[in-house]
Amino acid sequence: MLAFILRRLAQAVLVMLAVAFIAFMLFQYVGDPVTNLLGQDATPQQRRQLRADLGLDQPFPVQFARFVGNATQGEFGLSLRQGRRVSSLVAERFPATLELALVAAVMALGVGIPMGVYAALRRGRFWSQAAMTLSLLGVSLPTFLIGILLILVFAVTLKVLPSFGRGEVVMIGPWSTGFLTADGWKHLILPAITLSIFQMTLIMRLVRSEMLEVLRTDYIKFARARGLTNRAVYFGHALKNTMVPVITITGLQLGSLIAFAIITETVFQWPGMGLLFIQAVQFADIPVMAAYLCLIALIFVVINLVVDLLYFAVDPRLRISGGTGGH
Question: pTM of this prediction?
Fold first, then answer.
């Protein structure tokens, strides 16, 4: 177990170094930070002085080492567009994205897994076929179109939910949350549904296919031969083994909720990391772009590590082998 964790941690460090290198190369080949900060009218002496202050006159390995050192402390310099520290911008925007992703994940899991089990156990029934048909729409329709349709129906036509913004929030120390206000929840419903629909339908189809495959295995037949009830067979044996591959996909999809919330946040003008990244791309704000890349990579690495550890709780074969059969 310990060797397995250490091996995964070593892999995580290598991944983060690779992402840090890509983020660092943005500073080298996308725009000139000196020109962005001083403008076109700066004198050569001012340019040289700022380049020295920023450490851009140092050798490449020294600059990269300093970038990695600052990144481990959460420092990525100043935003070229707003002139503020990138760490403070991320701290302001990250709570909004995290809350949106958490609610979308709860919706996706809370609806996707039960619907997938139902579609597998009631295969061929009308409601099962209807659920599978709707899942095709959820997978096929682009996210921005789903968001626009929800705005048209619930915000423009019915006028029951707001169409943009985060609503009223409450500050708990440095953390802002909309979970404690009714207005915050009203603003959260439409973007959370929009963000969750693709993940929900994907999980539902995955659970259904895995459940059907597990129900065909020999140990399920033996469980039935022993006289176990359908409830014990379905939920005590089949569902537990179905969750092993589902955990992998679900874990990565939860990471993608944060990484790819860009479109949803843009449609609903949700003040999160995705909207901040879009604005940074428009203005070539390299420090913000680099911070976003590193943060998203860290989230995926942490989630992947947690998923690997969950295997030990779900699959007893890994506990017996001591983790040598990790995915």
Answer: 0.80
